Amino acid sequence: xxxxxxxxxRASPRVIGEKVLRPRAQVEEKxxxxxxxxxxxxxxxxxxxxxxxxxxxxxxxxxxxxxxxxATEGLISKTPGIKGGSFVQSVDYQSLGVLxxxxxxxxxxxxCLRADELAMVRQYLEVPASRLAAEHxxxxxxxxxxxxxxxxxxxSVDDPEVPELDSRFHRTIAAASGNRVLAAFxxxxxxxxxxxxxxDLSPDVGRETVRHHQKIVKAIGASDPDAAEAAVVExxxxxxxHLLPADANDGRAQVPLPLADxxxxxxxxxxxxxxx
Length: 276
Hints:
It is built from eleven helices and two strands, in the order αααββαααααααα. By secondary structure, it is mostly helical.
């Protein structure tokens, strides 16, 4: 049957129309499509609301509502002040990680999620991330990991740089996996579970942690996924044995996770100056 025929032998009406969007939705869709197409680049400042209203032929209120919706989606950010305005957000996997982190943070604050739930997912993701990193890491990834570990060896456990170095270490491994969604989730989960603050971080724990980080980097550098998995599980197992009690950690302490049930074979203990 042709496109112009119907079951009753009558010609079907030709489709020439499409749903007409409300003015606010039209503004949103146009800006959104320009961001996704790359016509609007990350960091680029949008024209002022008044100018956008003139260009679209709508009210400033309509523009303001459209921009507010785009900001909620994480596509733009609004900065107050004379030099402020609406700026296009980057839409790469790192910005996805930031968006996920902020969303998880709000839900933790509201009590919709518990920190131990996030910690469990984060630690489970670290194992496949390490295997993939051993298979897909670049020379640049390996150089970054080695530089981080060298810096960790040079500082004490009470150095304010420790949390960020630990976070960078695990984010770099996740990024080296080659899976950007995995990298985004590890970034968000690691940031929100604050692993360093959940540890009884003595000098001995710090030194053992760095040794574990070195072992992980060695396995990734050798492109050995089994060794990378073993090193990460050893690391996580050690960390769980050195968690602070919940009442000493503002309720953020992570519950023990049955990693031995998750991976193919249990590993021995080890450690980390930060956490896994």
